[in-house]
Amino acid sequence: MVDCIVEKRKLIIETWGKIKVKVVRPLALRWSRYFGTFGDLNRAAAIMGNKTVAKRGITNTYAKLSVLHSEKLHVDPDNFRLLGDCLTVVLASQMRRGFTPDVQAAWQKFLTVVISALGRQYN
């Protein structure tokens, strides 16, 4: 069991080192379409220059993000799962052949944990 966890963690870290986060993050948001208040997300150039999208990439604790999304923004928690799916699609398109079934499984497991943390505040 521990070897499996270590291997998945290694795949996540290796993958993260290969992707261009500043490109992947806005593309995942563009795919999602659940960010109507963010402004124009219909063109890649508009997304890349969108300050609201850029703010979403700032590191924060999951607890703070969970409170923000549940108590202040009242975001449907299922949107987190959909965003995770969008991120998986974008990672696959960016990595192409490097996005092996093992890498996909590691990312989906990791995103499940992140999504659970973000949705923790919901009743």
From TrEMBL:
<dbReference type="InterPro" id="IPR012292">
    <property type="entry name" value="Globin/Proto"/>
</dbReference>
<dbReference type="GO" id="GO:0019825">
    <property type="term" value="F:oxygen binding"/>
</dbReference>
<keyword id="KW-0561">Oxygen transport</keyword>
<dbReference type="Pfam" id="PF00042">
    <property type="entry name" value="Globin"/>
</dbReference>
<protein>
    <recommendedName>
        <fullName>Globin domain-containing protein</fullName>
    </recommendedName>
</protein>
<dbReference type="GO" id="GO:0042744">
    <property type="term" value="P:hydrogen peroxide catabolic process"/>
</dbReference>
<dbReference type="GO" id="GO:0005344">
    <property type="term" value="F:oxygen carrier activity"/>
</dbReference>
<dbReference type="GO" id="GO:0043177">
    <property type="term" value="F:organic acid binding"/>
</dbReference>
<keyword id="KW-0408">Iron</keyword>
<keyword id="KW-0813">Transport</keyword>
<feature type="domain" description="Globin">
    <location>
        <begin position="3"/>
        <end position="123"/>
    </location>
</feature>
<dbReference type="GO" id="GO:0031838">
    <property type="term" value="C:haptoglobin-hemoglobin complex"/>
</dbReference>
<dbReference type="GO" id="GO:0072562">
    <property type="term" value="C:blood microparticle"/>
</dbReference>
<dbReference type="GO" id="GO:0046872">
    <property type="term" value="F:metal ion binding"/>
</dbReference>
<comment type="similarity">
    <text>Belongs to the globin family.</text>
</comment>
<dbReference type="InterPro" id="IPR009050">
    <property type="entry name" value="Globin-like_sf"/>
</dbReference>
<dbReference type="GO" id="GO:0020037">
    <property type="term" value="F:heme binding"/>
</dbReference>
<dbReference type="InterPro" id="IPR002337">
    <property type="entry name" value="Hemoglobin_b"/>
</dbReference>
<dbReference type="GO" id="GO:0031720">
    <property type="term" value="F:haptoglobin binding"/>
</dbReference>
<keyword id="KW-0349">Heme</keyword>
<dbReference type="GO" id="GO:0005833">
    <property type="term" value="C:hemoglobin complex"/>
</dbReference>
<dbReference type="InterPro" id="IPR000971">
    <property type="entry name" value="Globin"/>
</dbReference>
<keyword id="KW-0479">Metal-binding</keyword>
<dbReference type="InterPro" id="IPR050056">
    <property type="entry name" value="Hemoglobin_oxygen_transport"/>
</dbReference>
<dbReference type="GO" id="GO:0004601">
    <property type="term" value="F:peroxidase activity"/>
</dbReference>
